[in-house]
Structure formats: structure tokens, C-alpha cells
């Protein structure tokens, strides 16, 4: 929601006086030009002859078809408004547009693409505080969204991200090279949702997790190379000439205990622990 600043209201008032239209009429046309990305407008206002269209450098149509004088005035007005908003970086955006006046305070609402109007140089508009969407501030303008029964999703094609919220937990996935083109929602013994891409069914368990509730997941700590090497070190083997079956077995069991301790601390994975344990036991 954008609200005209004092400078903005003065600018619109000056334009209205210069072109012979009311403030409300010019404000309405401003909304139409913004909605047309500054190069076209579809408008409807009694002062402009009802419904009509305007295109920069092209045809202008008004409801009073044969009123060429009105066409010229509308064309000049739209051209000046187009120049005005071109000096407001981030104001022109795609999407729907609506303007309204409440209690003497003129407000302009816009939704869609583009940057925040907080970067405007001429300060014609006072931007409302930006409220992050449920998927967080790092992602903007999803290609598709949906949800049902406490679960919702948003897919961001250019960012290669899929956001899913369920039970108050927001998980952001890296979709890799998947181009998600379909979503299937089912409710049979519990709600479920599946996604499909050019490769077929998308298994979420195989997608990297970028964040959970805005926090990156902890990566598993790899086992340090020296620790794995130490299990074959001579310090854990009987000295030549002093070996005995009982001593060899004791070293193997001691090594297995150390492996178990490393696995419990997360340094070794369960698979690495089982593989090394089997190797040691094979020496008995």
C-alpha cells in the first residue's frame, strides 16, 4: 500500500490544475497508468468520457468517441503521468492496482512485481512497512501457491526453491533442476500433497533442505582422516615378537569401543561404524 506524500499530493494537484481535471480524476488515471507499466492505461471516469484506453505514442480512445479535444487532453495527461512515474524507481509493477481516498488521505494500492517503493528518489509516495510473507524475506513472487488443511506451499522457479509450511514449521527445499508443473492434493486418511516435474514424481526426501524456520540445517561432521587412520596404527597393535591371541583380540575390542564412541558423538555415521566394525571382527 502506497500513500501519497505531501510532495506527491502537490504534484498531482498541480497536474490536475494544469490539465483541467479534478484531483480525484487525475489520481484515478495515475493508478491506471501505473497498472499499465507506464506505457498504457485502461481507465473509467466520467471526466474522461467514461471508459477508455490510452497507449504511449499510440491510439487514445475515450467514451465520447468524436470528442477529439477530450482525446487530446487525456493523451497529454497520461503522457505526463507516464513521465512522472518513470522517475519513481520501483513504482511501475505488474499486477492489480487500486486507488482510494479515505478521510482526506489519498492511498494507492499496488500488488505484483517490482522493487519496494522505498527507493524512490522524489518521495512522491510514502511506502507502508513491508511485512514478510510466510516463507520469509529471502524469497519473493512465487510462480504458484496453494494449501489446504493447515498445509501450504509456494514454488519459486527462478530461485529453485519450494517452501512448505505444515504444523507451524516452514521448510525451504532446493528444487535443483526440477521444473514443477503439477501439484496433486489428496485427502484420504490424512492430508497429503505431491509435486511433479519433467522427471515425474518429486521425492521431497531427496531434495536438499535449505532452511527450517529460517535456520540452515546442521551439516553432518565428517570423520577426521587421522582418526580413521589411527585404527591401523602400530600403537594399537602388539609389538613384533610380543603378539598373542588374547592381546590381538583385546586391541580389536578396544578399537570397536572407540568406534562406538565416535559414532555416538556423530563423528562416524551408522554405516561407517558398521563397516569398520565388521572389518575389525573379521580379523578375529
How large, in whole angstroms, is the Cα Rg? 33 Å
| Low-confidence regions | 92-121, 187-191, 227-244
Q: Secondary-structure element sequence?
A: EHHEEEHEEEEEEEEEEEHHH
Helix content: 25-40%
- Outline the biggest β-sheet: 5 strands, antiparallel
End-to-end C-alpha gap: 75 Å
How much strand? 25-35%
Q: Kindly report the spatial arrangement of strands forming the biggest sheet.
A: 8-9-10-11-15
**Helix/strand-derived class?**
alpha+beta
- What is the total number of structural domains? 3
How would you describe the oligomerization state of the chains in this entry? single chain
- Output the number of helix runs: 6
Q: State the shape.
A: elongated
Mean pLDDT: 75
Tell me the number of strands.
15
What's this, in brief?
The protein has 284 residues and is α+β, with helices and mostly antiparallel strands.
Describe the structure.
This protein is α+β, with helices and mostly antiparallel strands. It folds into three domains: 2-127, no CATH class; 144-212, no CATH class; 225-281, no CATH class. 30% of the residues lie in helices and 26% in strands. The protein is built from six helices and 15 strands. The protein has helices spanning 6-19, 23-35, 68-86, 225-230, 245-264, 270-281, and strands at 2-4, 40-45, 50-55, 60-61, 97-102, 105-110, 125-127, 144-148, 151-156, 161-166, 169-174, 182-187, 191-197, 200-202, 209-212. The strands form four sheets. Strands 8-9-10-11-15 form a five-stranded antiparallel beta sheet, with no helix packed on it. A four-stranded antiparallel beta sheet has the order 5-6-1-7. A three-stranded antiparallel beta sheet has the order 2-3-4. Strand 3 and strand 4 form a beta hairpin. Helix 1 (6-19) crosses helix 2 (23-35). The longest helix has 20 residues, at 245-264. The radius of gyration is 33 Å and the shape is elongated. The model is unreliable at 92-121, 187-191 and 227-244 (pLDDT under 50).
Amino acid at each position: 500500500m502506497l500513500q501519497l506524500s505531501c510532495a506527491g499530493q502537490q504534484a498531482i494537484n498541480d497536474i490536475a490544475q494544469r490539465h483541467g481535471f479534478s484531483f480525484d480524476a487525475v489520481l484515478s488515471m495515475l493508478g491506471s497508468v501505473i497498472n499499465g507499466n507506464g506505457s498504457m492505461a485502461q481507465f473509467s471516469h466520467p471526466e474522461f468520457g467514461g471508459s477508455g484506453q490510452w497507449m504511449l505514442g499510440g491510439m487514445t480512445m475515450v467514451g465520447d468517441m468524436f470528442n477529439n479535444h477530450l482525446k487530446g487532453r487525456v493523451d497529454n495527461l497520461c503522457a505526463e503521468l507516464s513521465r512522472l512515474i518513470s522517475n519513481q524507481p520501483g513504482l511501475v509493477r505488474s499486477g492489480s492496482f487500486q486507488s482510494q481516498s479515505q478521510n482526506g488521505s489519498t492511498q494507492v494500492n499496488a500488488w505484483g512485481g517490482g522493487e519496494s517503493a522505498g527507493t524512490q528518489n522524489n518521495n512522491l509516495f510514502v511506502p507502508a512497512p513491508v511485512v514478510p510473507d510466510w516463507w520469509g524475506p529471502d524469497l519473493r513472487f512465487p510462480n504458484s501457491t496453494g494449501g489446504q488443511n493447515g498445509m501450504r506451499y509456494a514454488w519459486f522457479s527462478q530461485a529453485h526453491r519450494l517452501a512448505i509450511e505444515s504444523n507451524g514449521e516452514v521448510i525451504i527445499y532446493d528444487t535443483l533442476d526440477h521444473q514443477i508443473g503439477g501439484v496433486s492434493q489428496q485427502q484420504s486418511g490424512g492430508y497429503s500433497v505431491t509435486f511433479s516435474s519433467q522427471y515425474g514424481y518429486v521425492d521431497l526426501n531427496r531434495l536438499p533442505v535449505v532452511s527450517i524456520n529460517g535456520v540452515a540445517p546442521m551439516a553432518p561432521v565428517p570423520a577426521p582422516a587421522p582418526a580413521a587412520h589411527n585404527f591401523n596404527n602400530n600403537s594399537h597393535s602388539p609389538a613384533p615378537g610380543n603378539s598373542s591371541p588374547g592381546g590381538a583380540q583385546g586391541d580389536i575390542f578396544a578399537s570397536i569401543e572407540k568406534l562406538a564412541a565416535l559414532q555416538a558423538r556423530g563423528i562416524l555415521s551408522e554405516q561407517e561404524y558398521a563397516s569398520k566394525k565388521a572389518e575389525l571382527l573379521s580379523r578375529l
